[in-house]
Amino acid sequence: MTSNSTFSFPESVDAFEFIKCETTKSCIQNGIWALNQLGSEAWEWLRNYSVDPALGFMFANDTMLDTIDNQMESDNAPVRVYHSGASFGFTMRTLHYIAQNGFDAYKTLYIQNKANQDEN
C-alpha cells in the first residue's frame, strides 16, 4: 500500500481479492493499474477533481480523463477491459472514491454494502 499525507492506494491489482464479481474486479484492477502507471500526480488530480453532476465521468471533457482512459486501454495493461461509457463511469466513480477516502475505506464500504445486500 502506497500513501501520501492525504490518501492511500494499492500498489498491486491483486489487492481486490474481496471483490467476487469478476467484471467489477477487472474494471477496478484496470483503473488502479492505469492510475499507478500515471503516478501520484494522477491520483492527486483525481482526488481533487470536481465531478459535474450533469456530465459525470462519462461525458466530461478533460484531457486528464482522456489520458487515464488511454492508459486503461494500453496493450501493456495486465487486466484488459474494453470499457463502455457506463463501465468507464462506474470505474472512475470508484477510483474517485478511493482517491478521496483511501483504499481501506473503499474496501470497508464495499464489504459492508455486500453484507447488507446479502441480508436482504
Give descriptors for this structure.
two-stranded antiparallel ribbon, disordered N terminus
Reconstruct the topology from this structure.
Elements (H helix, E strand, L loop, with lengths): L1 E2 L4 E2 L12 H17 L1 H9 L14 H10 L12 H17 L1 H17 L1
Antiparallel strand pairs: 1-2
Task: Describe the protein's architecture and organization.
The structure is a single chain. The protein has 120 residues and is mainly α. The protein has a domain at 28-108. It has helices at 22-38, 40-48, 63-72, 85-101, 103-119, and strands spanning 2-3, 8-9. The protein has a two-stranded antiparallel sheet. A hairpin with a 4-residue loop joins strand 1 (2-3) and strand 2. Helix 1 packs across helix 3 (63-72) and helix 4 crosses helix 5. The termini are far apart.
**Ends distance:** 33 Å
| Structure summary, number of beta strands | 2
Q: What is the helix/strand order?
A: EEHHHHH
Q: What oligomeric state do the depicted chains represent?
A: single chain
Rounded to an integer in angstroms, the radius of gyration calculated over CA atoms is 14 Å
Note the overall shape.
globular
Relative strand content: under 5%
Write a brief structural summary.
The chain is mostly helical. It has five helices and two strands; from the N terminus they run ββααααα.
